[in-house]
Each structure stands twice: as structure tokens, then as C-alpha cells.
Amino acid sequence: MMKGDFDNIPIVSLAGLAEDAAPEERAKTVAALKEALETSGFAYLADHGVSEDLVEKMRQMNMAFHDLPMEEKMALKINGFHRGYMPMSSSTIVTSSVAKVTKPNRSESLMVMHEVPEDAPYAGEPLQGPNQFPASLPEVAETARAYMTEMTGLGERIAGGLAEALGLERDWFKQYFDNPTLFLRLLHYPEQPDEEELFGSAPHTDYGFVTLLKQDNVGGLEVRNKRNEWIPAPPIDGTFVMNVGDILAKWSNGRFVSTPHRVRNLSRRDRYSQPFFYDPSMSALVECPPAMLEAGETPQMEPVLYGDYLLERLNKNYDYRKKAS
């Protein structure tokens, strides 16, 4: 298959990435991931090992949070560490390489990131500060922490499979994730009018390593192939939608593709989703591994500190950061 030449998104069983999986099962899973990420950059992940009860509990907490009075949500307005409540229409994806985005996204969200111990030597550095959770719903914090722990474990297993898909040692990515940058975004997309250039999430590529999305049964996610057709990515029970972010596409020297996607909620119902972003440590120096390059192939990217790369994008896309900078 050629890059970007797809009409649907494959389902990949991750059973082969389990610790006790037979080598031939693992090889099969790695090959399936490789094909999916080289062709569409997207895959539905089945047999992922994350408790469906926990996934459902997180969805319930997402809905409960967005049902809170606006005054209570606004008391948690996003802080300089990129944690907290983002009201409707407060992000515009100006760094999108796939569309000229002029209208803010029709969504609101609670942004949760990795926990930072108060006495951590890096506390207070960019994106290293406290999360904000509603005091009236302590279960939101409890569930989010448990969910992020499970999803981090899944991210680690996937990173091992991706390293092997690139011809590297299974643990190759580990050195770059000793203090991973984690985002859990609890999103609410209200019903939106069918207006031109108005999106729940405008066409964009993600800028990190991998995104692991749980969507509800409303639908609205679409992925763009190389013929400029928007392919629906409807929810499939028991799966996460995984996609490649820009930094992984660069790291893999373009082997894995970071594919444009968008959300339009034309369902006449509220849509809730919970993307989890598994990204390297802020201090990770991202550069193409020589071991992966074939004879005569040169790295397409300049080495970059992940933290610098990430902050540049956040500073351009979020209103609250523009005022602060």
C-alpha cells in the first residue's frame, strides 16, 4: 500500500505485545502496526489490555465534569502549566499544516497532564506544575489518575512495538520517555451548526508521539487520505483509535505518516471523547536513529529538544498562552 492511499482504518490486535505473547504472535502484531502506520497513520487497537470498566468510568466523569455549573468550571481555568478548563472556542489551530484555520474549535475541555510532585527538581519548569480538578467531584481526579497510569502502560507497550517496526531494539524509545509528557484531554463537543469552516476540531495533525483516543458512540471523527477524501472513523466497541503524531513521523524519517484529521459533530447530540497523548520527556533530544537509516538515506529532520518543539506549538494555538507571552 502507498502512503496515504487508504479507504478505511484497519483493526490491529495488540495481543502480541503482551509480556507472555509468543514471538511469532509479537512479530504478527508488529507487522500489522507497521503496515497501518505506514499507510494511513491510524489504527483501531483491539486487545489493548486497558480495563473497559475504567474507560467507561472516565467517560462518565468527563460528562459529569462538563455538567458542572460554568462558574465552577471557570474557577479551574487553564493555568500556565497547561492544566485546567478550556472554555468553548479558546483554541484555534493556527499551526495546522493542512488547512487555513480561522474559526476557533467548537469544543470545551478539561486538560489533565502528568502529575508533578511538589518536591520534584523540575517542578515549576514549563508544563511542570499542578493539575486542576473540581473539588465537588473528587472522582474526576481519582479516575483521571488511574486512567493515565493504565494508558501510560499501554503507551510503553506500543512504543516497544513501534521500535521493532522501525528495525530498532524493543527498548530503544525507553531512554526518551524516562519522564514522559502526558496529556489527557476530556473533551465535550456540543451539537454544531453545519457551517462552512466550522469544526469541533479543525483539520490538523497531532504534534506528539502517539495519540490514543476513546470516543463515545456519536461519531464525527474523519481522517484525510491522499485523494483529499475524508474517511469516517466511527467508534468501534472495545478499541482505541491510535494515530501517529508529527514528532514520531519525523523520528521515523517519514516512514510512519502523521495524517490530517478533523471532528464535525453534526449528530444533533453532545459528543464526548478522551484523547490521551503519550509524548517523550521535555528534555528528550529527538533525532533520527542512524541504525534505522538505509544506505544513502539521510535524516529529514534537524535534531530538536522535544520541550522546545512542543512549547512553540502550544504558544501559537492557545489563546491563554498568547496573552501571557
Helix content: 25-40%
Number of strands: 14
Counting DSSP H or I runs of 4 or more residues, the number of helices is 7
Structural class: alpha+beta
Round the mean pLDDT to the nearest integer and report it: 90
Oligomer: single chain
Sheet of most strands? 8 strands, mixed
Question: Architecture in CATH?
Answer: Sandwich
Distance between the termini: 44 Å
Family: Belongs to the iron/ascorbate-dependent oxidoreductase family.
EC number: 1.13.12.19, 1.14.20.7
Catalytic activity: L-arginine + 2-oxoglutarate + O2 = guanidine + L-glutamate 5-semialdehyde + succinate + CO2; 2-oxoglutarate + O2 + 2 H(+) = ethene + 3 CO2 + H2O
InterPro entries: DIOX_N, IPNS-like_FE2OG_OXY, IPNS-like_sf, Iron_ascorbate_oxido_reductase, Oxoglu/Fe-dep_dioxygenase_dom
